[in-house]
Design goal:
Length: 348
């Protein structure tokens, strides 16, 4: 392949870093791929993890793959490694080369790694008990980082010089890896772009209400955690991915709405003023937030509130660059502006 400025580099795409999270492995922690049989086909991207997508876009539940891009065939080169965690609100996007391509960064002497991790309910379902403690999407990221530590030397990368970087949901992920005991020692620098793990403080310890909603969206009973998870295991992955659109309504109290929003909702009789639902277009921002898992005798990704870890000065002692974009969430502001104009037109 060629970089933006015409530099040649090698691409190894679609490498499994964990076993397919299907069947009984659905809603379970990832099972690392520690051994490969025969020659690994690394010529094409793996599919994206289930998400709402056009019918012709490559999507599959068997999606835990990693891409490695390197400018060298010298396995002793020891180049710095960038491990990129894709954005998408933990419910969309992918690490595939069409959305997380290497052509800009491979102008430099770096090894770039991009990954897929489970999204939506398949990656972040949390009932708050042993049935589904939650946050397997973050565990996927940890297992991918462990894969890098074991294998990146073969691609000319230095396992002792790994920078994890991410945008939006990827940025939140980087910040959480900074305080997660599971991630300690797997990276050496962090870059967070446009997203903060402090945007919701405190974090919940379960998302049981969302598990119930997910169950009902696909026609499953919601009597208890076991019933929910066992039924969801029987549903086609595409049905779970496509059901995300059903999460687009968010409750909001009156004091959190702008005066314009309150007026519009009142005049249009969309909902009573004491119980208002706000429709954020078709983009359910923040449906699946991180959780601080309850101590159920298992290894936890987060053991306490990230803010508490920072207050104790107990975060990993690695350099961390934090930034934001110039027009942060501009698309959302534009949508709000469009909705306001629409409402005003109705008012004459």
């Amino acid at each position: 392949m060629k970089s933006r400025r015409g530099r040649s580099f090698q691409a190894y795409r679609g490498i499994r870093y964990a076993h397919a999270p299907v069947g009984e492995l659905r809603f379970q922690p990832p099972k690392p791929m520690l051994k490969y049989e025969g020659v690994v086909n690394a010529t094409d991207d793996g599919p994206a993890c289930p998400l709402p997508a056009p019918p012709d876009y490559p999507v599959d539940e068997d999606c835990l793959t990693i891409n490695v891009y390197t400018p060298t065939s010298n396995s002793s080169a020891s180049l710095p490694v960038i491990f990129f965690i894709h954005p998408g609100g933990f419910y969309s996007m992918t690490g595939r080369s069409d959305l997380a391509g290497p052509h800009y960064l491979l102008d430099r002497d770096v090894v770039l790694v991009t990954i897929n991790y489970r999204l939506g309910s398949l990656g972040f379902l949390s009932t708050g008990d042993k049935i589904a403690p939650g946050k397997n999407g973050f565990r996927d990221q940890v297992v991918a980082m462990q894969w890098v530590q074991r294998n990146i030397r073969a691609f000319g990368g230095d396992p002792n010089l790994v920078t994890i970087a991410g945008c939006s949901a990827g940025s939140i992920s980087v910040m959480l890896h900074m305080v997660s005991p599971m991630s300690k020692g797997l990276f050496h620098r962090g870059i967070s772009m446009s997203g903060s793990s402090m945007s919701q403080d405190p974090l919940p310890d379960n998302l049981y209400d969302l598990a119930v909603k997910q169950a009902r969206l696909v026609g499953c009973p919601a009597d208890n955690s076991t019933v929910i998870v066992e039924c969801l295991k029987t549903k086609p992955w595409r049905e779970l991915g496509d059901s995300l659109r059903g999460f687009r309504l968010f409750a909001a109290s009156e004091d959190k709405l702008s005066c314009w929003s309150r007026l519009h909702l009142q005049l249009l009789a969309i909902a009573p003023i004491d119980s208002i639902s706000v429709e954020w277009g078709f983009d359910p921002v923040g449906v699946w937030p991180p959780v601080v898992e309850r101590d159920l005798g298992h290894q936890r990704f987060l053991t306490e509130q990230p803010a508490d870890t920072l207050r104790r000065n107990a975060a990993h002692t690695t350099p961390h660059l934090i930034s934001q974009t110039t027009d942060e969430f501009f698309w959302s502001a534009y949508s709000s502006y469009t909705y306001h104009n629409y409402f005003l037109s109705l008012l004459g």
